Amino acid sequence: MGSTNSTLSKIPNVEELMEETGFTPAHIVRLYDRFEALDKEKTGHLRPQDFGAINRLAMNPIGDRIIGAFFSPGQETVDFHSFVRILAHFRPADKKHPKDPSMPEPVNSRTSKLKFAFQLYDQDKDGKISRAELLQVLRSMLEMQVTEEQLESIADRTIQEADLDNDDAISFEEFRKVPLGRARRLTYQHGPLQHSAPRILSQPHRK
Amino acid sequence: FERHFSIIFNVLHLKISDYATHSVIYLCCSSLLFPGLIQREGGSMEQEMGELRRYRTQSISRGEFALSDSFYFYRKGLESIVDDQVTQRFSSEELVSWNLLTRTNHNFHYISLRLTIIWGLGVIIRYCVLFPLRITLAIIGISWLVIGTTLVGFLPNRRVKNWLSELVHLMCYRICARGLSATIQYHNKNNKPQKGGICVANHTSPIDIVILANDGCYAMVGQSHSGLMGVIQRSMVRSCPHVWFERSEMRDRHAVTSRLRAHVAAKRNLPILIFPEGTCINNTSVMMFKKGSFEIGGTIYPVAIKYDPRFGDAFWNSAKYNMVSYLLRMMTSWAIVVNVWYLPPMTRQEGEDATKFANRVKSAIAHQGGLLDMAWDGSLKRDKVKEEFKEHQQKMYSSMVVGTKARNSQEPHTESTKS
């Protein structure tokens, strides 16, 4: 709360962050407020438990993996800068700027989004999704609703279809080639204040 | 005099806030002031998965897994990290237009000199003129409550005592309400709670009690405190029966229910006032009602309370502010404008269990007050969600992949909470 400028000045290196991620100052303030709301003990860092407190996330079958994506291996906490950097991957792509091959790939390009999704499956980060890793994801999404054999046959079929070089694993290139829906589905979109929908309902009902 | 003053004041405020709104909208495009980070797409799980799989030859009905299926869950997960429907209920409502209180403006931009001057004037008026008046009234109100009820407590006679105690209570609450500059509109007074009944309302702040008690006398239910609150509680009990529990007693649900039942059974006792949500919600929605209050029996009189957020934010965020700073904020807002609707009494029907009854009452209150009816539990402020919700998501997804199980009907909780 309070003036944007005062909140922004609380965050160190905020210009760099905006440059790197492409978020506007208002977005950064929003995210900062959210970060503080999640960081109940005001330590300046988030731990996996703080994410776990979000109910919709706890309900999500792959919620643990999404939380894991925020923490680099070996790290137990994530600070505000890393939090924003990771969320920046999912910003809608900037259509206005023409593609400049000499510049490094922007953070929120289609490729980086796909790379992120790939890492969701590839937990040991060896660049390939092995059959075991695929099975793990399937298991979290389906848990007790299907039998082990069904899970295995689904995994086998998926690998068969996607695997082009017959190494029994899916590499990032093969992942990209599988006709996936547009990576646009991985973004969240700018829109009007999300409270505008409930506000329509809040006209009191007068008899 | 008070009434006229408050009416003039309200009109003046409306004019000022209209002007502020127009200048704000004129000078800035809405994307600057209200940066929405998320626009949720309202599709169900099936619709969205179908979109994700668009280029594949297999359709959803044939089952089969696609690597892109996880994107749906991934996206939902990220959306909930950036914001979620439940946590937002435990912080103040965001207003579409500014009401000249910096406390309600989350993204304050410097807009123009004129607006800042108006705001500055507002600050001076609120803090230097209104606040001292209100504090004086509040002190008078509370001290009279303590003194008056103690005096009445000395009287032996039944009828006179009750009449006097009601008079004293009403007077004190009315003074306190003036102390907060509360303008209250009561609707459907014919449905007012009767003696021996249970009054049930949605909870936004401790001020709810003052608001309701301005129009009738209730028996309060709550925990006995020490200190100033304890003094007030003990003196109130002297003039008419309230139900104060020790902290240890509150854990024993059975003891609580039987005490309340005994109170209701004595038909001469004042109606009990209960807030079944159990915690303060920010007045945009009504959360799950705890069934304990609905197991007592007797007639339930539902009441809907809706604050007008333009004049001041009445929500008590107990994590952020303690009681004293909350009251100070209330006394330095513009005013508290409330609408109270008395709903027709309800009783538990044959074969209806307490939970269903509670939900029925909750929907009635939400509908009347124009609030969102949410199935989430208010205690989620502090606790976590249960495993069954995760299993439900898994079930839905597996019916798409494996294709043989019968599709479940609409998921009860998540669908109703989509924005």
Short description:
Chain A has 207 residues and is mainly α. Chain A is built from twelve helices and four strands. Chain B has 419 residues and is α/β, with parallel strands linked by helices.
How would you characterize the overall build of this protein?
The complex is a heterodimer of chains A (207) and B (419). Residues 181-185 and 188-207 of chain A have low confidence and may be disordered. Chain A has helices at residues 4-10, 14-21, 25-38, 48-52, 55-59, 63-70, 80-88, 110-121, 131-142, 148-162, 172-177, 196-201; strands at 45-46, 78-79, 128-130, 169-171. Chain A has twelve helices and four strands; from the N terminus they run H-H-H-E-H-H-H-E-H-H-E-H-H-E-H-H. The longest helix of chain A has 15 residues, at 148-162. Chain A has a two-stranded antiparallel ribbon with strand order 1-2. Among the domains of chain B are: 124-381, no CATH class; 387-417, no CATH class. The model of chain B is unreliable at 20-42, 55-62 and 404-419 (pLDDT under 50). Chain B contains 13 helices and nine strands. In chain B, helix 8 (227-239) links the parallel strand 3 and strand 4. Chain B is globular and about 80 Å long. At the A-B interface, helix 3, helix 5, helix 8, helix 9 and helix 10 of A face helix 2, helix 3, helix 4, helix 12 and helix 13 of B. Chain B: Residues 408-419 have a biased composition (Basic and acidic residues). Chain B: It is a multi-pass membrane protein. Chain B: Residues 400-419 are annotated as: Disordered.
Measure the end-to-end span of chain B.
45 Å
Helix content of chain A: 40-55%
Shape of chain B: globular
- Residue fraction in strands of chain B: 5-15%
Given helix and strand content, the structural type of chain A is: mainly alpha
Order of helices and strands of chain A: HHHEHHHEHHEHHEHH
The major pleated sheet of chain A works out as: 2 strands, antiparallel
> How many runs of DSSP E, i.e. beta strands of chain B?
9
Spatial arrangement of strands, main beta sheet of chain B:
1-8-7-2-5-3-4
What is the rounded Rg of chain A?
A: 20 Å
**Strand order in the largest sheet of chain A:** 1-2
Q: Gap between N and C termini of chain A, in Å?
A: 37 Å
Describe the global form of chain A: globular
Helix content of chain B: 40-55%
- How many strand segments of chain A? 4
Number of H/I helices of chain B: 13
Poorly predicted runs of 5 or more residues of chain A: 181-185, 188-207
| Oligomer type | heterodimer
Subcellular location (chain A): Cell membrane; Cytoplasm; Nucleus
Organism (chain A): Oncorhynchus mykiss
GO cellular component, one term (chain A): plasma membrane
Protein name (chain A): Calcineurin-like EF-hand protein 2
